[in-house]
Design brief:
six-stranded parallel β-sheet, globular, 6 strands, Rossmann fold, about 180 residues, alpha/beta, 6 helices, RNA nuclease activity
Length: about 180
């Protein structure tokens, strides 16, 4: 059996990441997905990184290709076609289900890295900490992360908008 030490899996709530960084009111910025994938691998030993999105839209094919080219495994939420224009992604339950399924099936990994600021993951995070299967939750925007996570302890969270992290994963502006 392979050594699972330092073999973590990352789960990214794509809409949460995008809305918290690119659509923020004050100083929005863009994540360089390839650099972000390398960051997850080097800093958190994420050998796999699942990127969850709401649903497939043909006009976003370039984005989907970019996500996959950066090394993420892209997963979409199943929706009723009649609801596609009116629903947000809402991938929370899909991420929770996938994490728990991997634990139940005893898949070969050490810990979970979660990218989201959404409080809906709090019970899962608490369980993973209790089971010693949780590495870190990465908040896209530290100021807008759910207050539910304040009790888990600073060793279990970090922010992507911290200047040192942002410098590593931000799209570099080209000089004019």
């Amino acid at each position: 059996m392979e050594n699972t030490k330092d073999k973590n899996i990352a789960f990214i709530d794509g809409q949460n990441l995008y809305m918290a960084i690119s659509k923020r009111k004050v100083s929005p910025w863009d994540v360089d997905l390839a650099r972000f994938r390398i960051y997850l691998e080097q800093k958190y030993h994420a050998t796999k990184a699942y990127y969850f999105l709401g649903f497939v839209q043909a006009e976003n094919n370039d984005l989907y290709e970019e996500i996959q080219k950066a090394g993420f495994l892209l997963l979409f939420r199943e929706h009723n076609p009649a609801m596609l224009g009116t629903k947000k992604g809402n991938v929370d339950s899909d991420i929770i289900f996938n994490v728990m399924k991997k634990l139940y099936k005893k898949e070969d990994f050490e810990k979970v890295v979660l990218v989201s600021g959404d409080g809906d993951y709090k019970r899962m995070v608490d369980f993973l900490i209790e089971e010693k299967r949780f590495e870190k939750i990465l908040f896209p925007d530290g100021k807008r992360a759910s207050s539910l996570y304040k009790k888990i302890g600073a060793q279990y969270f970090a922010t992507l908008d911290a200047p040192d992290v942002r410098a590593k994963i931000e799209v570099k502006k080209k000089a004019p």
